[in-house]
Structure formats: structure tokens, C-alpha cells
Amino acid sequence: MMLEQTLSTLNQLKLFGMAKGLAERLKNPAHADLTHEEFVGMLVQDEKTDRDNRRLTRLLKNARLRQSASLEDVDYKHPRGLQKQVFQELANPRWITMGRNILFTGPTGIGKSWLACALGNFAARQGFTVLYLRAPRFFEVLHQSRADGSHLKLLGKIAKTNVIIVDDILLTPLGEAERSDMLEIIEDRHQSGATVLTSQLPTKHWHAAVGEPTIADALCDRLFHHAFKIELKGESIRKNKADEK
Questions:
Q1: Is residue 168 within 8 Å of residue 200, measured between CB atoms?
Q2: 111 near 230, Cβ under 8 Å?
Q3: What average pLDDT is seen over the chain?
Q4: How far apart are CA 103 and CA 222, in angstroms?
Q5: 1-26 exposure pattern, b = at least 16 Cβ within 10 A, e = fewer
Q6: Which of 116, 206, 141, 215 is nearest to 170 (CA)?
Q7: What predicted TM-score, i.e. pTM, was given to this entire model?
């Protein structure tokens, strides 16, 4: 009876990890000889682990990553110019805390989106907030926010997100509103938030694709400053895998 009351109180206090741990550990004969201090210490660790797991689940859900990818599964064997040393450096969260941008360029099917999602997964596992959107959808959301009056609120949310991933940007030249939004977003995030972009267009052509020279100067300067520029080359990985089947 006392145990049921204790479990009920723990759940009411939202100490779900401790409640689950208590029920399981009392059934384990190996824990019978633990001191009170050791037993309570384990329950506290159970609560921390449960909260960490729930936070990670929430971060990954909110990130909306397009693909299930991780840095541990990066393929360095496929000839595409991907340097293992660079990704070993990115396995340290300093690029996030320092607000460094990562720019993936290369042909379709070379793995840009997968690698970007792997970085997003890594960031979430480190406890950072992440948001993934394909560029067309990204600009559509921004356009809709102008119409419903939530534009400034959305820009504020994007500015506070630790890592944003915009996939397939500059497939077409930017329009006036898109240029303005991108400059505002990158300006807000400059050296305070990490931005990951993927594009089929080489970075040397980004200035022209942005369009208006003054905005292009400001945008490219902030994007390229202290950024990781990862240019991928070679045959499509998707095509090779299809051929192997």
C-alpha cells in the first residue's frame, strides 16, 4: 500500500523516471544490499536518464529531420570528396556554440541532405534545438506568416533555434521577399546560431542567384564568413545503390 502511494506521489510530481526506477529496482534482488544513499542515488540517475531521453525525443520530433542519419554511419568510402577529418571536427559541438555555418554543395544524389540530417541528429543528441526544412517549404512558411501576421514571431523562433537546416536552397533564384527574409534570418543568427545549407549550386554562383547585389553582398559575406564549405563531387550514391540491386 505504501509503495502504491509513493509511486502515485512520484507520478503526480512528474518524477516519472524515479517512479519507474523504484518499481523495477525493488523487484531486483541485486539491489537488496544497497545502502539508502546508493539506492536514492540510483533513483536520481533514473530520473535524469528519463528526462534526457524525453528531451531528446522532443528535440528530434521538433527538428523534423527528413532522414534518419547519424555521424557514426557516414560513408567515407564512396568517392565524393568528403574529408573524414572535417567530419571528425564536426563531431565536436563547438561549431554549434560558435555559430559556424556549414554549406554543402554538389550534384543531386551525392548525399548532401543525408549529411545535413546527420549533423541535425548530432546537434539534437547534444541537447540543442534543431529545425529542418526544404527551401521551397521554408519560404512558403515564411510567406504564409506574412499573411497571417505571425512573421515577426516566426523570425524570432528561427533566430532562437540553435541549428537550422535549409535543404536544396537556390534551386531557383531568390525573389524579393525571399532575399529579404534570408538576410534577416542570417543577420539574426550571425555568430550566434549555426545554419546548415545544402545546394546543387556551387557557392561561387550564390551571389548571382541571390539577385540584388547589395543584399547578395551582405548575405554571402555572413554566410561564408568562418563557414565550413563542403563541396561534394562524383556519381550519385542513390544511383549506385539502385544499380547494385
A1: yes
A2: no
A3: 88
A4: 12
A5: eeeeeebeebeeeebebbbbbbeebe
A6: 206
A7: 0.81
148's grid cell: 497571417
Type of residue numbered 82: L
Cell numbers 541571390 correspond to: 210
How far, in Å, are 17, 37, 51, 153 from residue 14 at the CA level?
Answer: 8, 22, 10, 30
Give CA–CA dist 138/211, Å, rounded: 19
Grid cell locating 85:
577529418
pLDDT digits (tens, 9 = 90+) for 11-48: 887 888 878 888 888 788 877 777 888 888 888 888 88
Q: Where are the beta strands (DSSP E) in the chain?
A: 102-105, 130-134, 163-167, 194-199, 228-231
Total residues found in the chain within this entry: 245
How many CA atoms, within 13 angstroms, populate the side-chain half-sphere of residue 84?
A: 8
Q: Which residue has the cell 571536427?
A: 89
Which residues contact residue 93 at a Cβ distance below 8 angstroms, ignoring those fewer than 6 apart? 122, 123, 126, 128
**Single-letter residue type at 97:** T
Give mean pLDDT, residues 206-230.
Answer: 92
Q: Which domains does the chain have, with CATH numbers?
A: 2-62 (no CATH), 64-244 (3.40.50.300)
| 177 grid coordinates | 521577399
Residue tagged 532575399 (cell numbers): 179
| Number of Cβ atoms within 10 Å of the Cβ of 138 | 23
Residue 232 binned pLDDT confidence (cut-offs 50, 70, 90)? very high
